[in-house]
Design brief:
This protein is mostly helical and about 400 residues long. Helices cover about 45% and strands about 5% of the residues. The protein is built from 19 helices and two strands. The protein has helices spanning about 35-45, 70-75, 80, 90-95, 110-130, 130-145, 155-165, 170-175, 185-190, 195-205, 220-235, 245-250, 255-275, 280-295, 310-315, 320-325, 330-335, 360-365, 395-400; strands at about 340-350, 365-375. A two-stranded antiparallel sheet has the order 1-2. Helix 12 (about 245-250) crosses helix 13 (about 255-275). The longest helix has 22 residues, at about 255-275. About 45% of the residues are buried. Mean pLDDT is about 80; it is low at about 1-50 and about 380-404.
């Protein structure tokens, strides 16, 4: 297995940039950290070794040093990777979350997210000065980590697993290894360019903990990009810090400022799950997608897993219209004749564990709890809508008091 040589990361002169702060009423006085101070330190870190601006719509640019690589160009053109343009980032939740995220009509996709994760992997490669071959293996794994997602992502995956025995981990490895038709050209591109297919699959699955565990650990490229991308959906204000700042913080472990940034990021992850994924809207979105697929299961086969959301919607008449309806909350609950069971996840920090990459699995933890949403309950889980900034700094402060 290829291993990378560890070289002390280069330090770059930091320049403070101006940061705008959002004013909102305080919901609690207590907090674990001073977020205003954190934002200044985030600005410092964001200037280290590279880009200071992160574009969620088009994450890759010539500055990443990838555009001239034939491997990237050929991989991006494969039908399997292009399909991700038609798979929205948050699945069913995406259709009801906010009509126009951050005032834009653009919706994010798994395609954009995958390129974003590749950008973070390339940032790591530059900072660690890893070999050319390791760099290519690293960004290929980043690009392909979500290639096995179904239409509507996690919203339909339980039903595909129940009826056809397929989920995104298996689908990802099958595509990369060329075991399914849509993956043949992916496999051929990787082999042609001398990429170790088995290592790519091992990195994505977490079996290979190389590259400081930034694939296998809780603080990883995928989570960093995904949580902050979700944050940009849910708030009317700009993201308070970018994915690259968090990635650099995960690399510069000797800096106490880095620990503060990573800890704050982990609190944000907990807040995203609480206010979006496990909100009433989030639970109902997943429920109604699975309900409609069950109602139309005779029209589905295993091959539909590898299609697009437009294709899936054609086999579930009325679903798109319901997800985008202003009466979604009321109508979707009428389909539930019994409690909707779901697994709620919470994320917390064990402050007694050292801030070292090899200790992340012990320091940054999560808990899972089985919960139920009652069919006619409107308040059991949080409700969100386009008028509420879910992730303003003061909401975060209130959330952080849970971790005392």
């Amino acid at each position: 297995m290829t291993t990378h040589r560890t070289v002390a990361p280069k330090r770059h002169v930091c320049h403070l940039g101006s940061l705008r702060t959002q004013k909102a009423h305080s919901v609690r006085k207590n907090s674990l950290c001073d977020l205003e101070g954190s934002k200044v330190r985030m600005a410092n870190l964001s200037q280290r070794g590279g880009h200071s601006f992160y574009d969620f719509v088009e994450p890759l640019d010539p500055g990443t040093g990838i555009m001239g690589d034939g491997l990237y160009a050929e991989l991006a053109k494969t039908s399997a990777f292009q399909r991700l343009k038609q798979v929205r980032f948050l699945g069913g939740i995406d259709y009801i979350l906010v009509p126009a995220p951050n005032g834009s009509k653009s919706r994010y996709t798994r395609f954009q997210h995958s390129l974003g994760v590749a950008r973070l992997a390339l940032l790591y490669a530059r900072q660690r000065e890893i070999s050319y071959q390791d760099r290519r293996t690293l960004y290929v794994a980043a690009m392909l980590h979500d290639i096995g997602h179904a239409p509507l992502s996690h919203s339909l995956e339980p039903t595909f697993l129940k009826h056809f025995g397929i989920e995104h981990h298996k689908a990802t490895s099958d595509i990369i290894a060329g075991r399914v038709d849509i993956g043949i050209d992916v496999y051929q591109v990787l082999r042609w360019h001398g990429i170790n297919v088995e290592q790519v699959i091992a990195l994505i699955s977490g079996e290979d903990s190389s590259f400081d565990g930034l694939f296998s650990g809780p603080i990883n490229f995928d989570t960093i990009e995904g949580i902050l991308r979700s944050h940009s959906y849910a708030t009317a204000s700009a993201t308070v810090y970018g994915p690259e700042a968090i990635t650099r913080a995960a690399i510069y472990r000797d800096d106490p400022k880095s620990r503060e940034l990573i800890d704050t990021f982990w609190h944000y992850k907990n807040l995203m799950y609480k206010t979006v994924i496990n909100s009433e809207s989030g639970i109902l979105a997943d429920f109604i997608c699975q309900k409609f697929m069950e109602m139309n299961i005779r029209h589905f086969s295993e091959k539909d897993y590898y299609t697009t959301e437009d294709s899936a919607f054609r086999k579930m008449p009325g679903l798109r219209e319901l997800l985008t309806s202003k009466n979604f909350m009321y109508i979707s609950r009428s389909y539930a004749n019994e409690p909707i069971n779901y697994r709620a996840r919470s994320f917390f920090i064990d402050q007694s564990i050292p801030f070292k990459s090899e200790m992340d699995a012990l320091r940054y933890q999560q808990s899972k709890e089985q919960k139920s949403l009652l069919p006619h309950s409107a308040t059991q889980v949080g409700i969100f809508g386009p008028g509420w900034d879910l992730l303003n700094e003061h909401t975060l402060r209130a959330q952080q008091t849970l971790f005392r």
